[in-house]
Amino acid sequence: MSPPVITAKSLTKKYKEFAAVDGISFEVAPGESFGLLGPNGAGKSTTMRMVGAVSTRTSGDLSILGLDPNEHGPEVRSQLGVVPQQDNLDMELRVRDNLIVYGRYFGLSHAQCGRKADELLEFAQLTDRAKAKVDDLSGGMKRRLTIARSLMNDPRILLLDEPTTGLDPQARHILWDRLFRLKEQGTTLVLTTHYMDEAEQLCDRLVVVDKGRIMAEGAPADLIKQYSTREVVEVRFGSDRNADVARRLAGVGERLEVLPDRILIYSEDGDAELALIAEMGLEPITSLVRRSSLEDVFLRLTGRSLIE
Amino acid sequence: MTAVTEPFAAEAAGRALAGGVKPRRYGSWYVAEHRIRGMRSYLKTLLVTSVGNPLVYLFALGVGLASLIDKNLGPNGFNGVSYLAFVAPALLATAAVTVAAEECTYPIMMGFKWNPIFFGMNAAPITGNQIVNGVFISVLVRIIPTCVIYFLVMLLFGAVPSPWGALTILVATFTGLSVGLVIAAYTSRIVDDKGQMAMIMRFGITPMFLFSGTFFPLSQMPIFLQWIGWISPLWHGTQLGRVLSYGAVEPAWLSALHVLYPAALCVWGWTTTQRVVTRRLNK
């Protein structure tokens, strides 16, 4: 097997006394699609900045492509593509020019930049907007342009920080499709997200992060298998009755989670549990049987919801 | 690590090391190139102001006010020259200072906050120091043509008696840079815009323009206000400009000070801005 392209050991970042990243360790193999899943403030973006060789770690070891980013920041960054959480395209420049100035930062010639920009505009489905002002693009188009920009240097590793936050469902699906293509071409992807569906769609393997620490690690399906049941029954009895009913439901399913607006019943067979509830004479306002997701894994691990 | 995997690792690290060579060497120029490309979008405005500005000032002061002063003092009654010749080097230096102040306030605030392109550059192989260098190179790219155009208009008005006068372009550029770099050292620290930049213009640049011996010799101001001139790079630039432009007489040590003082400000402003920007990027 090839050696990892990223190795982090006890990676820590402290701001005064507060540890934003508190001793996390992980490895990413070449060509792998690796995710950091966690709520806002979990330390995902801070981790990404350290991996992106722009933020100095407080302690621990970090190696990107065999180099220490503290020593070789520009060298490491020459091999990365970065899609930051907040778009930082140059609003004064037009779409294609944004790609060209960015390519120059990697030492590409004007001719190389022009060729690559046209190729990536095609990839990002922005060819007809090449001369548009960045300001006139929709949120999804800006995101695609940022991804195109991050590919100007043919990066070995692509870092994506919350790539689809704030986008409408259609724009997200277009973006996922583009990221899939990159994955197929063998680009190593590292992404942070607080969307479980995104993590399930894109990640071969992920770590669940909370309060700067890793809570669990594995492939999405394995994590679900390990920390949750096959199915989940969601029942709502109205916020004032939920807690009451939950007491009577003790023993139904393998495990219960009582949330303010609904009760989750973890079970291998959701329909059977639903029938049981009906037999007990409890009449939920709404009920739903679904497959377990990473959201359930997160709830199990932290007792909290991903999106709060 | 097994023997099979070593070549891969070595190849990856080798590619990274090679990839860093050009950005490390030319990064500052790439940043300047980016900024200059950005200026293209308002090139017309830049041209119109850099031609219009000297025309308006020299006409108002050199033709309007000067005719009044020269009528009272005689044609060479002001420091041994016409009022126009006296005031022209000061206006040239002021034009450079104004452009430098513009370029070292909003664009820096923008790069961190309103349109945080500095973070984008830094995510590529560009360092904080290179971003600062690139911004300052682009400031020079704006100051120099402004000064050249200004100087040509001065020639047109007959405001430059000495052939050495062309050197005032360099002096003005240097003066502008020294003010710009000091301002940049401050603006690079600003996190929240609370109108600090308007304050710089109103309470920094404008009083400096008025009290730096621009319209009358510094010695004519009350002694308790003269310090404004002494600490003002604009006064130093203006005085050196006058020495070159029409041979104003002053002790050699003072002329030396006119060079050393702005140079010291440049060094301080440059290194401080680099330090602040580097620290701010490393979150």
Automatic annotation (TrEMBL), chain A:
Residues 6-236 form the ABC transporter domain. The keyword Transmembrane does not apply. It is a peripheral membrane protein. InterPro entries: AAA+_ATPase (IPR003593), ABC_transporter-like_ATP-bd (IPR003439), ABC_transporter-like_CS (IPR017871), ABC_transporter_ATP-binding (IPR050763), P-loop_NTPase (IPR027417). This is ATP-binding cassette domain-containing protein. Its main location: membrane. PANTHER family: ABC TRANSPORTER ATP-BINDING PROTEIN, ABC TRANSPORTER ATP-BINDING PROTEIN NATA. GO terms for biological process: response to antibiotic. It comes from Lacisediminihabitans profunda. It is found in: Cell membrane. Keywords: Antibiotic resistance, ATP-binding, Cell membrane, Membrane, Nucleotide-binding, Translocase, Transport. GO terms for molecular function: ATP binding; ATP hydrolysis activity. GO terms for cellular component: plasma membrane. It comes from the Bacteria. Transmembrane segments: none annotated. Belongs to the ABC transporter superfamily. It holds the Pfam family ABC_tran.
TrEMBL record, chain B:
One of its GO terms (cellular component) is ATP-binding cassette (ABC) transporter complex. It comes from the Bacteria. It is a multi-pass membrane protein. It is found in: Cell membrane; Membrane. GO terms for molecular function: ABC-type transporter activity. GO terms for biological process: response to antibiotic. Its main location: membrane. Belongs to the ABC-2 integral membrane protein family. This is Transport permease protein.
